[in-house]
Amino acid sequence: MKNFISGYCIVRDSKINLNGKIIFEQDAELNSFLTNAYRKFNINYPKFFKMDLLCKLAFISSEILLKENNPVNKYKENETALVLSNHASSLDTDRNYFKTIEDKQNYFPSPSVFVYTLPNILIGEISIRNKITGENVFFISEKFNPGLLCLYTNMLFASGNTNCVLAGWMEVDKEKYDGFIYLVEKINPHPVTEHEKDRVSALYYKG
Amino acid sequence: MKKVFVSSGNIVSPLGFSAEENFKNVADGISGLQVTDKYSFSKESFCVAALNDEKTDTVFSQLENPGNFTRLEKASILSIAHVLKSTGIELDDKNTLLIYATTKGNIDLLDGSSALKKFDENRVYITGMVSMISRYFKCANEPVIVSNACISGLLAILIAKRMLEAGLYKHIVVAAGDIVSEFTLSGFKVFNALSGKPCKPFDAARQGINLGEAAAALVLGTEKFAGTDEIKIINGSGSNDANHISGPSRNGEGLFQSVLKTTENFPADTIDFISAHGTATPFNDEMEAIAFSRAGLKQVPLNGLKGYFGHTLGAAGLIETIISIEALKQNMLIATKGYETHGVSENINIIRKTEKKKSHTFLKTSSGFGGCNASILFSSL
Amino acid sequence: METQHQLEENLKAQLIQQLNLAEMKPEDIKPEAPLFGDGGLGLDSIDALEIIVLIEKNYGIKILNSEKVKEIFYSVRTLAEYISQNQKT
Predict the structure, then answer these.
(1) Overall pTM surpassing 0.95 (yes/no)
(2) Which among A46, A109, A111 has the least Cβ separation from residue C23?
(3) What is the mean pLDDT of each run of 10 residues along chain B (381 residues)?
(4) Is the CB of residue B268 less than 8 Å away from at least one CB of chain A?
(5) B162 vs A121: CB contact, 8 Å cut-off?
(6) What is the DSSP letter of C43?
(7) Do B238 and A140 count as a contact with CB atoms less than 8 A apart?
(8) A108 chain-C contacts, CB cut-off 8 A
């Protein structure tokens, strides 16, 4: 059974790549980079500023990808699934939270940091923003694993309830970041490419 | 599509080192929860279900090649070793996959105090931890790791089911584990989510969760396991609330959607019991009551098992599944420990007393931060 | 001692910083406007927890009684009043 990649977005090396075109480029540290992208693309969602870096990365990537082709316009809320992954889980934010409890003389655990110490919170943020209520999973792996993402995406399609999958890799760890998100649909007359492991891999590595 | 069968499983928790021992304690109404001031970071005491390190170390030292492992790695290895032995399955076989579920892994290693310094920094990464487990068992396939908040354990079973149905493997070992740490205790504390006394799921006086620590493992396969009454996974699904990143949905939308899909063709009178998430926070239990009521499952006997194990985060869904499998095998309904006075708006049927009842089919659900929900229906019919 | 007005102004700045209200300036926050829910700042339950930490950290006041929290947290003004009533001189 064939299905299709409708679009993809890569946020990496101070650049944002949408379907193979660089649409934003700026040499800045990640938080400023993402905030400037937020402003440049006229996104209006004040909750963005409350997110941790991992969620900001996922949010901007998904906003840019879904701007042109949002599954909510085509499918029922529960027909879109999210299949995301990374290596460091939420460790970057875990370290920030740990700083708030490390010094016993200055011990003020932060609830707004703690809430982001799970990687799947970014799935929650994308779901809330786009009113997506389908299946969720967050996988952890050493490296980007297109085989696993493709396999699971196809299983969700086969289960009969899912018609669209937002999949990808969202990594933030020690100043390094790498965001890749793509949309897979069962039916698309104008796809970027067919959905299969090697093509996902090529998009991820070659843009 | 292939059928998916479950084995008996194993639990390493304060209530024992096997599923049978854990189940016996649960059936006898014994809880692993204790008020302790052993967490030195705080002057306060916490009510937790903590593993006894001395006991774990004693059992662990009896394994072949016990090496230098963290608390969570030891508990996980013990649990996995146990199910491999009891089922005769090997992880160094190309037809077997390990799926590991956790929320925080070795998060205690973030605290660089001297006792923890003997571990490489890589071990605080979940991949670093799982690769130690994988190396110990000489896994033939790279393990799949799931970290999806408090539904991780149940979601791992659902993923395994889908992979087995697709014919990718003959067996999948689903394992899960999480520990109690300063990290999680301080976080849930500042969320006002902790109860200082043993938790009271669905009770009017419930005040919040108790954290617990445990590891568990369950083998799933495409052929029936000896002595398990052919318990199969019938159906399962997940759904997101799309409502709030930490607060449960007020109308239980995500859980309702998931339960509705999972119990399609299974009306309330065909389900013998529900093992709910039942964290004992005011909002969670109310949300669940609404979701079950909306799904037409009000009269189905329901329990929450966190009064025995505390909330073991990523392991909770797996542990509660394994206890429920034992309950099915032994035809028992397990009481919701801590529940006395009905405290949710819907008149759901919460089990007060552990008793014998012929059972064939149960529903297990989990819900978590990020708005995630999952449910699976198991049956011996 | 801080005047009530000064306390309110300080609180606004602290809220903006601590709650990451990046698009807001202190003059956008009316001292009597509700902090939570629609029509006000639209803060949520996590913000409420963060304000509890803020008040303890900056003013040394522990807010424990959850019944009262709704009243105390109604607006910048009610917060400031609570702080000045409970601050040790």
Answers:
(1) yes
(2) A46
(3) 93 98 98 93 91 96 90 98 96 98 97 83 97 98 98 98 97 98 96 96 98 98 84 97 94 97 97 98 98 98 98 98 97 98 98 97 98 97 89
(4) no
(5) no
(6) B
(7) no
(8) 53, 56-57
